[in-house]
């Protein structure tokens, strides 16, 4: 952290977890049933499910819903309803959290950042959340759309920047992604099948507190401080990942080049960032990385010299929840916070990097450090 720069603390994370679970085995059977007229291609693509390193994921609606062709209107109505409900759960859990000395009231939140890419709403979902909880009417709103898997990290970065300018304030970042609602029952493309093998649904909310906020006193003695962030977008990579929006809904775009781009674009950005903040890989306690998929995590593992333990939390979230787009990195952050407090001692390495990749093709990095300040 540069001299004179104000601190921002990442305080707690709450999640909104859909109630319906789908095992990877059942996901395979569901795809085989829906695309029963394409048995040969289904058989050829089944290894995608076996090699995804996912055991289960959660879904926004019941299994039979996915067996029928759904209109964009129907999909979006489910998205709005479930995004609101699950976001409220995540916010309540975030502000009434065991990592805080006392609960934080909604009235204390000065900025709400809402991140999503799997549905559309105007007014944006944050307006609905403000109406359903006791947030103040002068709360600052920052809805962010279209950032995909990178949105969780980017949302945190924007909140951190705002709190450095407003150090007496607090902020909450909410990421709501219902990826399964984008599944296309008539689209037998490899990208659609890959998405089915990877995607899950989830919502998460993170509380951030400025250095001079009166609510700093509610944080524990050891605090996770967000120091610096870095953004990077590579030109001429617009078709790497994203959506094609059609009359039926969102059709996923997944390029086979994504793992290779981790090896090139992300590695370059990551190493440049470490140099900028004067850290070595050996200084890191953890890499709080969005688990876009098994191959992405393996390439990241190679970049950090094979130190898999840095990515243990990311592998765990991928295995139990799948890829929930922007919300996933907040799930990893939640696990990192909880496990760090469980194992914290005077010898703990203090630094970590939060990372996510998204459409564009973009990379976002945040340097974090434990402090008793």
List keywords for this structure.
13 strands; 2 domains; nine-stranded mixed beta sheet; 10 helices; alpha+beta; Peroxisomal Thiolase, Chain A, domain 1; 36% helix
Structural commentary:
The protein is of the alpha+beta class. It has two domains: 8-218, Peroxisomal Thiolase, Chain A, domain 1 (3-Layer(aba) Sandwich); 223-371, Thiolase/Chalcone synthase (Peroxisomal Thiolase, Chain A, domain 1, 3-Layer(aba) Sandwich), CATH 3.40.47. It has ten helices and 13 strands. The chain has helices at 24-34, 39-50, 72-95, 125-132, 151-165, 190-198, 258-276, 294-303, 312-321, 328-343, and strands at residues 8-16, 20-23, 56-59, 111-116, 140-145, 170-178, 201-210, 223-237, 241-245, 250-254, 284-289, 351-358, 360-371. The strands form three sheets. Strands 5-4-6-7-1-8-13-12-11 form a nine-stranded mixed beta sheet, with helices on both faces. A two-stranded antiparallel ribbon has the order 2-3. A hairpin with a 4-residue loop joins strand 9 and strand 10. The chain is globular, with a radius of gyration of 20 Å. The protein starts with 7 loop residues before the first strand and ends with a strand. The model has no long low-confidence stretch (mean pLDDT 92).
């Amino acid at each position: 952290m540069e001299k004179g720069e104000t601190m921002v603390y990442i305080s707690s994370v709450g999640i909104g977890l859909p109630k319906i679970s789908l095992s990877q085995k059942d996901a395979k059977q569901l795809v085989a049933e829906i695309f029963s007229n394409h048995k040969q291609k289904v058989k050829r693509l089944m290894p995608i499910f076996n090699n995804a390193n996912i055991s289960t994921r959660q879904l926004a609606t019941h299994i039979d819903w996915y067996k029928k062709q759904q209109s964009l209107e129907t999909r979006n109505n489910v998205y709005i309803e479930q995004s609101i409900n699950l976001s409220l759960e995540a916010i309540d859990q975030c502000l009434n959290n065991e990592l805080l000395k006392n609960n934080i009231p909604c009235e204390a939140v000065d900025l709400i950042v809402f991140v999503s890419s799997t549905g559309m709403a105007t007014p944006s979902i944050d307006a609905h959340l403000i109406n359903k909880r006791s947030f103040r009417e002068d709360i600052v709103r920052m809805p962010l759309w279209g950032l995909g898997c990178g949105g969780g990290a980017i949302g945190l970065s924007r909140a951190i920047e705002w709190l450095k300018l407003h150090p007496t304030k607090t902020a909450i970042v909410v990421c709501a992604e219902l990826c399964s609602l984008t599944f296309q029952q008539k689209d037998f493309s490899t990208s659609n099948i890959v998405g089915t093998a990877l995607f899950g649904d989830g919502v998460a909310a993170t509380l951030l507190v400025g250095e001079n906020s009166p609510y700093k006193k509610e944080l524990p003695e050891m605090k996770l401080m967000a120091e610096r962030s870095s953004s990077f977008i590579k030109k001429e990579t617009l078709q790497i990942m994203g959506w094609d929006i059609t009359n039926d809904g969102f059709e996923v775009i997944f390029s086979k080049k994504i793992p290779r781009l981790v090896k090139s674009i992300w590695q370059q950005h990551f190493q440049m960032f470490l140099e900028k903040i004067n850290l070595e890989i050996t200084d890191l306690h953890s890499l709080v990385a969005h688990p876009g998929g098994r191959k992405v995590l393996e390439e990241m593992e190679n970049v950090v010299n094979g130190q898999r333990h840095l990515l243990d939390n990311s592998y765990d979230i991928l295995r139990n929840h799948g890829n929930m787009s922007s919300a996933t990195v907040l799930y990893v952050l939640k696990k990192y916070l909880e496990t760090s407090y469980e194992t914290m001692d005077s010898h703990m390495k203090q630094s970590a990097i939060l990372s996510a990749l998204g459409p564009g093709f973009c990379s976002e990095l945040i340097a974090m450090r434990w402090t008793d300040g």
